[in-house]
Amino acid sequence: DIDECSFDRTCDHLCINTPGSFQCLCNKGYTLYGLTHCGDVDECSINRGGCKFGCINTPGSYQCTCPAGCKLHWNKKDCIGSVPPRATLTCNKTGKKDSCALTCASKARFLPESDSSYTVSCGTPVLRQGGQQRPANSSQQCLETVTAPIKQKASFKIKDAKCHLHPRAKGKQEEAGKAGVQGGSAPCSDCQVAFVNLKCDSSKKGKGRRARNSSNKEVTRITLEFEAEIKPEEITAGCNLHCLRQRVEKKLKSAIKALKKSINQERFLLRFAGMEYEVARKLSVAPERQESCGPGQQRLGGKCVSCSQGTYYHGQTEQCVPCPPGTYQEKEGQLSCDLCPRGDAFGPVGATNITGCTGQCPPGQHSADGFKPCQPCPRGTYQPEVGRALCFPCGGGLTTRHEGALSFQDCDTKVQCSPGHYYNTSVHRCIRCAVGTYQPDFRQNYCIACPGNTTTDFDGSTSVSQCKNRQCGGELGEYTGYIESPNYPGNYPANVECTWNINPPPKRKILIVVPEIFLPSEDECGDVLVMRKNSSPSSITTYETCQTYERPIAFTARSRKLWINFKTSEANSARGFQIPYVTYDEDYEQLVEDIVRDGRLYASENHQEILKDKKLIKAFFDVLAHPQNYFKYTEKHKEMLPRSFIKLLRSKVSSFLRPYK
Question: Where are the disulfide bridges (predicted)?
């Protein structure tokens, strides 16, 4: 068995050797064409990637987009209007004491950046998405949110304190509870915001001359960004959108004022997963014993390790705990888990992403958030995927025989389309797949785009194997190189023309080996490979063929330079060729020609195999191009080559070196 996987360039991605053959596989998001090549799949051509609004293809993947003011659903395909508020800001006042707490029910993110800075965010920011591709009809816009979110930013300084997120001391926890009961309602007793980002940064002040005497003073800066959404349903006759915006802005501003006071009085808390955390620690307080790791980490074998996916940091035990049922956590080192869309406490413990949440709608069903309870797709619609918020209409007034249809094939079309066609719902006819696309199945309403930069020769293609790369292949080096037909080892495309020029360095000649060449056997020579001195038809020709030859042949070029041309007709196609060449020192011309013209070189099967063996040809060419490299192979060649072949070469070489003996 020859291990083809040990050759250069056998497969684009992954190669698996099998007895007598080999197989190529592609990475996820790519598909195989031309037997060994991998091209990016354009998922957007397959039913718009299943996206509700727009689809953008990326190498190895794709992304769904949503219209402005909408967010991408957790299933990464549907679009939803407003997201329920995730962060609640509670402030109350007792006498002169302001205390505020930011509670994060879900979507909390903790990112320690250095010893003295970190970022905490809560909720999901409203994305403004531009550049959509392949948008659907505009009726699917998100009508719930017509307005931009209100954004506010505030920055506070705390003197003599260092950024340090830590669980609040136990004694203080109860005290906070009491204060909350007595406290009167502050300007923003319960502000709900869609997104909060808090950054804490302590950096030593070391600017200018005065800094010398106060080198131990630290200034901690806390920067808060808020995004609040306006709910159009709250617009009333007495208060229009503009008035509503002002009202929310005013609320936010007064909340920020209360916050500033509470931060200065060190009465600001963050609440994650039922634990209260303080954002900074006074320098006067002795640092706690060093055994414990920071928030989001636990001690394992003497090292601090971030809590893994599917777990969160439990402030009281200072350990990582698996996410309880009904929650999940995709990121490492977090202080809480995110809630599943359905607030029920079912599902596995320690789920690492939202697909671990139980109760997703099966194919053929849908619900607002993709979770149970689900409704079957109404008649005239279908849904092939799990956890979706909508069903796709058949279009063109077509219906389905029953509710809960799974694919377009369940729609009652007027005609049944065969592979290579798609059903057009506006004219109710089967249309041939355009050039560059294919469809292997019956009764589909789309054609799949060819992978990577390939295309088809004709319309109506039924298989990805009809997708071909039209680029002329090869590498042209000064000493060694090769030329190959486009899409090799797959069949070459129709109507292509390739030209290569081999231009050796001074005092060097060209030797070519054609291991095998596959061209269609026709009478009228449709596909031709020719090697000449230059493009002029009357120039010296070294080689010309329009037929298949499975027996190898080696020859020297009849001119110093070579112009090589390959031209195909629109008729049949075949595998084509991969032809290596080497340039050698002209002093050896007599010897090389003597060898390649000797019939014994091609007489036995054994010798023919040598000229087809990529590794042996590489070794030969290496020695022909640089004779001193012969010494690399002196021991190996006995195992590599049959004795009859070495005998043939030895007689040629000795007579070349000692002509007068």
Answer: 5-15
Using the structure block, give the residue that is written with the tokens 């799990």. Answer: 386
Distance CA 530, CA 545 (A): 7
**How far is Cα 406 from Cα 164, in angstroms, rounded to an integer?**
53
pLDDT digits 0-9 by tens, 527-543: 999 999 999 999 999 99
Taking alpha carbons only, the member of 120, 95, 100, 119 closest to residue 257 is 100
**DSSP-derived secondary structure for 480-529:** EEEEE-TTTTSPPPSS-EEEEEE-PPTTEEEEEEE--EE----TT--SEE
| All structural domains of the chain | 44-81 (2.10.25.10), 305-356 (no CATH), 477-657 (2.60.120.290)
Residue 576 identity:
G
pTM for this predicted structure: 0.71
Instruction: Note the pLDDT tens digit of each residue in 330-374.
Output: 899 998 888 887 666 677 888 888 887 878 899 999 988 888 889
Q: Which residue has the tokens 């950046």?
A: 113
CA distances from 327 to 85, 106, 370, 415, 512 (A): 17, 9, 16, 47, 66
Q: What torsion, rounded to 10 degrees, do the Cα atoms 598, 604, 610, 613 define?
A: 130
Asked if 468 and 35 count as a contact pair (C-beta separation under 8 A), the reply is: no
Residues 463, 450: contact at Cβ < 8 Å? no
Q: How many CB atoms lie within 10 A of CB 369?
A: 19
**b/e map 252-273, b = 16+ CB within 10 Å:** beebbbbbbbbbeeebbbbbbb
Cα of first residue to Cα of last residue in the chain, in angstroms, is 44
DSSP structure class, residue 211: G
Give dist(CA 644, CA 569) in Å, integer.
42
Average pLDDT of span 252-264: 82
Q: What angle do CA 101, 104, 110 make, to 5 degrees?
A: 100
- Consecutive H or E run containing 64: strand 61-65
Distance between CA atoms of residues 325 and 272, nearest Å:
17
Q: Residue range 584-610: average pLDDT?
A: 88
Phi, psi of 540 (to 5 degrees): -60, 125
DSSP characters over 212-275? TTTTT-EEEEEEEEEEE---GGG--SSS-HHHHHHHHHHHHHHHHHHHHHHHHTT-EEEEETTE
Q: How far is CA 386 from CA 295, 383, 443, 541, in A?
A: 36, 8, 22, 64
Do residues 456 and 450 lie in contact, with contact meaning Cβ atoms separated by under 8 Å? yes
Q: What is the pLDDT of residue 188?
A: 53
Give the sign of the dihedral formed by CA 396, CA 400, CA 405, CA 410.
Answer: negative
Higher-pLDDT residue of 279, 391: 391
3-state helix, strand, coil in the chain (%, to 5): 20, 35, 45
The tokens for 387 are: 């956890």
Q: Report the candidate in 270, 413, 330 with the shortest Cα–Cα distance to residue 107.
A: 330
Position 369, amino acid: D
- CA-nearest of 565, 482, 487 to 529 is 565
Residue 465 in tokens: 């194997």
Peptide bond into 373 cis (omega under 30): yes
List CB contacts of 279: < 8 A, sequence separation 6 or more: 163, 164, 165, 198, 200, 222, 263, 268, 270
Assign 3-class secondary structure to 290-357. CCCCCCCEEEECCEEEECCCCEEEECCCCEEEECCCCEECCCCCCCCCEECCCCCCCCCCCECCHHHC
Q: How many degrees, rounded to 5, is the angle at CA 167 between CA 162 and CA 171? A: 110
